[in-house]
């Protein structure tokens, strides 16, 4: 699981904008992770700037762009980029060892359609991503903040849903996944109430895991133990 951002929300779920809303989690890098950051950052790294990216300049082409918030160690993101060379991928992660691991895997896989931020997801989304520019936003296994008094810290809130909607193209999809059923119910409640979205589920609840989301080792182990995973996909329609 990845702690996608240290940004917090108030009791009404409103994002608390602070001058410094996050702390980059340095962690202890392995030699391989450090070498990957040094060697791959010039080509795959994105340095944060509050000016919206020109995606065609960043990737050297016009293509649908998928953005993942909190990619953890990056294995599934690299797999997705490798499996869909016709798409562009951007990952955001605050944990530096995860960034190093992702860059290492990407280099080994030979992917050229992936770019990575080591920065706070909220700042990147609000300032560095142009409105209406993304084909898909992915939020996989965010911190569920189990305790009821901590639910306000969950990233999926009304204001966050509206921020994602602005960044998606019409027809773009916000794809969430969690292994906590109660959090999936919270996500569903927030998203059903969010204007401008349509649930892609045939029964108005969750969807089967789509082919584009790889089965993680963590998830496969959970399946063997009888644990569930819930995917939600909401399309921007307005």
UniProtKB/TrEMBL annotation:
Keyword Transport set for record: no
Role description: Catalyzes the formation of N(7)-methylguanine at position 46 (m7G46) in tRNA.
Family in the record: Belongs to the class I-like SAM-binding methyltransferase superfamily. TrmB family.
Stated name of the protein: tRNA (guanine-N(7)-)-methyltransferase
Domain of life: Bacteria
Organism the protein comes from: Shewanella septentrionalis
Reaction equation(s) it catalyzes: guanosine(46) in tRNA + S-adenosyl-L-methionine = N(7)-methylguanosine(46) in tRNA + S-adenosyl-L-homocysteine
Record keywords, A-Z: Methyltransferase, S-adenosyl-L-methionine, Transferase, tRNA processing
Molecular function via GO: tRNA (guanine(46)-N7)-methyltransferase activity
Keyword Ligase: no
Pathway the protein acts in: tRNA modification; N(7)-methylguanine-tRNA biosynthesis
